[in-house]
TrEMBL record:
Catalyzes the attachment of proline to tRNA(Pro) in a two-step reaction: proline is first activated by ATP to form Pro-AMP and then transferred to the acceptor end of tRNA(Pro). One of its GO terms (biological process) is prolyl-tRNA aminoacylation. Keywords: Aminoacyl-tRNA synthetase, ATP-binding, Cytoplasm, Ligase, Nucleotide-binding, Protein biosynthesis. Belongs to the class-II aminoacyl-tRNA synthetase family. ProS type 2 subfamily. GO terms for cellular component: cytosol. Pfam families: HGTP_anticodon, tRNA-synt_2b. It comes from the Bacteria. This is Proline--tRNA ligase. Homodimer. SUPFAM superfamilies: Class II aaRS ABD-related, Class II aaRS and biotin synthetases.
Length: 440
């Protein structure tokens, strides 16, 4: 992709309304544009990152055996009245009426709708277990949307819902999602610590928030230092292995870890001083087991092997990809801009043509671009008329993992400069050596 053909509205000045690092950098890097309070357009660079985050989430949900569908954003208020949550949810719910006067709402979550969908077909215990998920835009009318896409009114959410015949089965489904979340965040280069959490308006008696540590985190968290070194479950993990999954969950919940809302000061102080971690954290995922909270009032029951009927046990599991993009920036930046982990970067390589229009540099950039594409990677070529200093600033701001700097002086010796964004290390190499390193 050539920068001259791309849409990248870079801002050189820091927007006054941006309070946190991710908001400032997303606006400056041309990733998003605010349209209203808590509502953003995702511009091409930001959308590319969001798509890569979404794909990792999808792949790990599929690996865990969850099945994707797509529910509508508008829901009937009658479903929420069935569950008893319509009046309890509060002013965050956007309530509307259609032209026929029917009460509707813009979905903040989908427990009621998925329960109604599943009860239309589930008949017996043979229809479960199932985990259904979708990735959909949600709306919650925050009283004070802030921090850019970290706390916006409109946001993208992956929400999954499990259905099991009893509590034992439901807890295994919970463990499947627990392990899936560990893998999801690790693939993005994040260490996410599962912490006991309040269930809030979702309900239930078992819940964990997945927290990444970041200086600009929105809340204080407390945990044992061992969480920072726990090995991520491999991609060979068997999601049907009940005992194996429970052992993994046990390993990730055996030490102390809690958000400020669930903090037990006395238990925390039993940890040795050197192993105590008190830091700021950002929630990137939240999972719940809530039993029959929705299935019982909404009549979602199945027939057991002995002919008796009982309501299904359910859980819900959320990850916000839009929020996650901001969290990734909070955990990966420096004074010059964003530092994308390879797995979520909008492009793999940025090629800086320091003398656009020069035959030699244009030819070398085209050669590098073609070779990178042939290796299955994506590049962005800065072929603008910007001065070299401006090109370096843009490249560091948008945070693409590798920069190939092509200038007439280096090419006279058959060389280009290769810079790794994260470490800042620079290497002067032949074009062939640079390509070998980038495409390996």
């Amino acid at each position: 992709m050539r920068l001259s053909e791309f849409y990248l509205p870079i801002l050189r000045d820091t927007p006054k309304e941006a309070e946190i690092v991710s908001h400032r950098l997303m606006l400056r890097a041309g990733m998003i544009r605010q349209e209203a309070a808590g509502s953003y357009t995702w511009l091409p660079l930001g959308l590319r990152v969001l798509a890569r985050v979404e794909q990792i989430v999808r792949e790990e949900q599929d690996r865990a055996g969850a099945i994707e569908l797509k529910m509508p954003t508008l829901q009937s208020a009658e479903l929420w009245k069935e569950s008893g949550r319509y009046d309890d949810y509060g002013q965050e719910m956007l309530r509307i009426a259609d032209r026929h006067g029917r009460d509707m709402l813009y979905g903040p979550t989908n427990e009621e709708m998925i329960t109604a969908i599943f009860r239309a077909s589930a008949q017996s215990y043979r229809d479960v277990p199932k985990i259904l998920y979708h990735i959909q835009w949600k709306f919650r009318d925050e009283v004070r949307p802030r921090f850019g896409v970290m706390r916006s009114r409109e946001f993208l959410m992956k929400d999954a819902y499990s259905f099991d015949v009893d509590e034992a089965g439901a807890r295994h489904s919970y463990n499947r999602m627990f392990v899936s979340y560990l893998r999801t965040f690790a693939r993005m280069g994040l260490t996410a610590i599962p912490m006991r959490a309040d269930t809030g308006p979702i309900g239930g008696d078992l819940s964990h928030e997945f927290i990444i540590l970041a200086e600009t985190g929105e809340s204080e968290v407390f945990c044992h230092r061992s969480y920072l070194d726990l090995a991520t479950p491999p991609d060979t993990v068997d999601y049907k292995d009940v005992a194996g999954l429970q052992a993994i969950v046990g390993r990730f919940t055996s030490a102390y870890a809690a958000t400020s809302e669930m903090h037990d000061k006395e238990a925390y102080e039993q940890i040795g001083v050197v192993d105590r971690v008190s830091a700021r954290g950002i929630e990137v995922g939240h999972i719940f087991y809530f039993g029959t909270k929705y299935s019982a009032p909404m009549g979602l029951s199945v027939t057991a092997g002995d002919g008796s009927k009982s309501p299904l046990h359910m859980g819900s599991y959320g990850i916000g990809p839009t929020r996650l993009v901001a969290a990734l920036i909070e955990a990966n930046h420096d004074k010059d801009g964003i530092i994308w982990p390879h797995a979520v970067a909008p492009f793999d390589v940025m090629i800086l043509n320091l003398k656009a229009g020069d035959v030699a540099t244009d030819t070398a950039c085209a050669t590098v671009e073609k070779a990178i594409g042939a290796a299955g990677k994506q590049s962005l070529v800065d072929d603008s008329a910007e001065r070299p200093g401006g090109k370096f600033a843009t490249a560091d701001l948008i945070g693409i993992p590798w920069q190939v700097i092509v200038g007439p002086k280096g090419l006279a010796s058959g060389e280009v400069e290769l810079k790794e964004r994260r470490s800042g290390q620079r290497h002067t190499l032949s074009v062939e050596s640079a390509l070998a390193r980038l495409t390996q």
